[in-house]
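Blinded run. Sample ID left blank on purpose so nobody reads anything into the name before looking at the predicted structure. Input follows.
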Amino acid sequence: MTLFKQMALAVSLLILMILAAVMVQNYQTAKKDMLQSLYQMTVNNISSLSSELANNANKAVIMKSILNAAPQDKSATPDKVPAVVKSIIDAAFDSGYYKMIEFKTDTYSYKQEDNDPIEGVPAWFVKLSNLHIEPISTEVTHDWMSIGKLTVVGDVTLTYKALYKIFINLLYLFAFVSIISLIVLAVMLHFILKPLKRVKHQAEAIINNEFIIEEEEPYTTEFKEVSNAMNSMVRRVREIFKQATEALKRNKELQYNDPVTKLFNRRYLMLKLPELIELEGKVEGGVIMLLALDGAEHINQILGRQKADAFFYEFAQILKNATLINEESISARVNGTEFIIMLPNTDKENARHIAEHIQERFVELLEKNNIPQTQASLSIGLYRYKNTMTPAELLTRVDTALLHAKNAEQSNIYLYDDSDNEESLTKTQWRSLLEQSIQKHSFEFHFIPVKNIRTKELMHKFVSFDIIDQDGKRYSYNSFIAPAITLGVVSPLYLSVMEVLFNKYHAKLQHINYSIRLPKAFLEEENNFERVATLLEKQKKKVLKNLCFEIADSFALHKTATVLGYVDLFRKYGYALGIHSYTGSANDFSYLKDINPKYIKADAQFLLDQSQDAIASLQVVTNSLDIDIIATGVEEQNDVEKLQKYNIFIFQGSIADSI
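Blinded prediction complete.
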């Protein structure tokens, strides 16, 4: 329960108790006064009634007839009560001042009593009020002679009615005053605790790893001290995060950037190649381009060292600008005269067009610097690859393409493509196979463990899947994802996969954490956001809350706004988000703070290639945001030992199966 509710409840109860006590006291006072007034009135009335009885009941004739007369009819019981006595008592009783009148003598008695229920007053109120009136008695005398005893009880009917009316009025007053008091209390508490709400908002932001400084100081001393302490803590954490990100940026530049061209170096390229080769897209695989600049020594001689460096830098800008259309492409300087451009999700026609554009711009650059084309030239070899190749195979074949380009007589551009010689399904066959898998849910799932080697704890299981045709032939994820994207069926494919997980594997997965990747093509389709929201809403009663959706680091970096929409959606239904294929390619790591993923997955070789300072800076960033670092592709025990020295203990790969 919040502090506001606790204080409101406590003060409200106190106010209600005070009001109730005042109301009860007023009611009791009114009751006491009415009973006192009724008693006094009854005393006054009994005096006059006894006097009237004394004057009339003592008449000699009446008294004689009472004392000496005998009834004529021996079989009947005579009425000994004189008519005048009856008349006096009946008249007094009918006046409405008495509940009971009784007159007793030695020879007779006469009593009048009203036992009818009180009209206009509920029975529960009569029972609750319980007005007890003591009978009042007096001796009726005449000339010092006692005639009889008169006993009366005052009529409380009017008292009950008056008390009930007072009770109702007090009840209305109590309700009105209570409501007004509670409204005033709520308003007062709202303003008194308003600074606390800001402190609460700041605390929630800290829990969500958001760095919010509360500029407006609370006027309450205690709240002000808390706010200042939290501001100080947030400033320190924010400064630590800033310093760590700057350190990561500097380390990346020192380790992975060529100092002259500012392009990535060979070291970074080799770390990035596995991710780029397996990148999903409409085109299966992509194109790698190897560029060799012949005549670098002549350029140095003609321009001099300093201007030659400027020439190489300007050439690097040509490479960058030529590939801007492909946000996943990277350009790297692999040695003094050779450059590589990696173009994932690119067909050979577009790649050739890019190569020709680069060649044209290179000639313009030579002319600009007055360098004859006979002194310097550019050869470009292109290789069209599929995502089943290894980095070593890729580099070998693009090197072959470059040799062909250098030996070509007419053009210095050569495209090497052996993918057309491989057996592959046609688009029609792929469409039929994918639609059949979606309709019949013919998927085979693989659950890859992710474990903490230090605690032996299973962190989660990564879910991958194959599709199976009607003959039982299995197609791996890497083989069908590109056709699925090209044919526009990746969305129904993944929605179908999620439905199967939610329904068929519910019992199997409800006690473990698990994760599934969402490809870039799925996330980029606008309608999928609503489709996923509808699916999660439909399944919310039985969907597992231990699911984590994974997205690629490159997509999170370049499409942060899109990712944030999914982050909010997943959090609404209790799911988490993780990042895979992390390579630290960002210059600004604030996107990690905005997205706040549960973990980041990075290839083990990438992590092992980092310096101790770089890993330490990365861990400062992730620790400040409560993000786990998971090493993927861990195969060797030797790598495990090295990663442990970097304080990385969570692994995904074959090594996790043996833990």
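Unblinding after everyone has recorded impressions. DSSP finds 25 helices and 19 strands in the chain.
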